[in-house]
Design a protein that fits this description.
Number of strands: 0
Strand content: under 5%
Number of helices: 8
Order of helices and strands: HHHHHHHH
Helix content: over 70%
Largest sheet: none
Structural class: mainly alpha
Shape: globular
């Protein structure tokens, strides 16, 4: 047999280029993270943002979704928390009303925790219980942050945000209590804000 008698069979090789459509689909699947990065940039550019209220609002969203027993309620609850923070800021800036929105949100969270534990069916108690405890715990951290001077307050609330980012990660992996997109969004937002607030506090930018 000579070399001319051998038939060459083409071998399929994997494409080495980047598929733009596949890349775009991958980016779009991470839309919660992209929105979180954009919101974190906006929040950090707003020097008057109440970081303890953000921490409290995040815990309140989880508690509300657990009590309602609907993961899809997480996004409307998040928008409600944002609106509540906005109302608190407007009350202070526009009307001079001394409203500590963090304390108001902690009070709402405590009431929600009591109601949820008292009225939740036994089948959902395993979801409401941890969320209620987390609400009280993160709320206590937020209240502590508003009672001290700016530098330690920044460290306290920053650590609280990082702690809530870990809470987000657990729920993202388990895909429970809140919509997974909300857990991803909140985890990225909490991490970015937590790190940024601690760095600003330590550097003296919050003093």
């Amino acid at each position: 047999m000579t070399s001319s008698d051998i038939t060459t069979v083409p071998v399929d090789r994997p494409a080495t280029g980047i598929d733009p459509k596949a890349l775009l689909r991958g980016v779009l699947r991470r839309w919660p993270s992209l929105v979180a990065v954009a919101l974190a940039a906006f929040v950090l550019a707003d020097g008057g943002t109440d970081f303890p209220a953000i921490l409290t609002g995040a815990a309140l969203v989880y508690l509300g979704a657990a009590v309602l027993g609907r993961r899809s309620a997480a996004w409307p609850l998040f928008l409600g928390a944002v609106a509540l923070i906005g109302v608190g800021k407007v009350a202070v800036v526009a009307f001079g009303v001394p409203v500590e929105i963090t304390v108001v949100m902690v009070a709402l969270g405590a009431a929600g925790a009591v109601y949820g534990l008292a009225r939740t069916p036994a089948g959902r108690a395993m979801l409401v219980g941890p969320s209620a405890v987390a609400m009280l715990g993160f709320g206590a951290v937020a209240v502590a942050a508003v009672t001290v001077t700016p530098v330690p307050a920044g460290v306290i609330v920053g650590l609280g945000l990082l702690g809530h980012a870990a809470w987000d990660y657990v729920h993202f992996r388990r895909n429970t209590v809140v919509a997974r997109s909300l857990a991803e969004f909140c985890g990225v937002l909490d991490t970015l804000l937590g790190v940024a607030v601690i760095v600003l506090a330590v550097s003296g930018a919050l003093s």
